[in-house]
Specification:
This protein has 151 residues and is mostly helical. It has one domain (2-38, 46-150). It is built from 6 helices and no strands. α1 (2-30) packs across α4 (73-96), α4 crosses α5 and α5 packs parallel to α6 (141-149). The longest helix has 29 residues, at 2-30. It is globular, with a radius of gyration of 16 Å. The protein binds zinc ion (2 copies).
């Protein structure tokens, strides 16, 4: 039981680290073709960038299936992976980009810091020169602003 909880927690933390590097070096690199839609204003509800979420959902489903068929710990990795996706969607698509049917933006505390940090990430519509690539962890906004200025 405890081992399984540890796997779930480690998967969530691992996914944040992975997401940071994936966003920084792939989405703002070779994968910019899909991610660009998220950095420029687009009409309509869906963006080409949402294809990343589709890909990750397929990977999560494959992990769940592999976990049930062959090796149980993988099922818990899949659970952590999915919980990360839910947390990511809540913070990124909900709190920051307000892609939900109501209007709620945190005004203080850590969630506010996350929103500010990601808004600073959207300061640029270009592939290069962006700051703050994480989603559930962000550096203090002052540091990010200073970093943005020095670019
Ligand atoms: Zn980006
Ligand atoms: Zn965003």
């Amino acid at each position: 039981m405890i081992a399984n909880i540890l796997i779930v927690v480690a998967s969530i933390v691992g996914m944040e680290v992975f997401a940071l590097y994936f966003h920084k070096y792939f989405m703002h690199g070779r994968g910019w073709n899909w991610h660009e839609s998220h950095h420029i204003h687009t009409k309509g509800y869906f963006e080409k960038n949402d294809l990343y979420a589709v890909c990750f959902s397929i990977i999560a489903a494959a992990l769940f299936i592999s976990g049930s068929l062959w090796w149980e710990p993988l099922w818990y990795v899949a659970l952590g992976f999915t919980l990360y996706g839910i947390l990511y969607a809540f913070v990124h698509d909900g709190l920051v980009h307000q892609r939900w049917p109501f209007n709620y933006t945190p005004k203080k505390g850590y969630l506010f810091r996350l929103v500010l940090a990601h808004r600073l990430h959207h300061h640029t519509t270009e592939r290069d020169g962006a700051v703050s690539f994480g989603f559930l962890y962000a550096e203090p906004p002052e540091r990010l602003k200073a970093e943005l200025k020095s670019k």
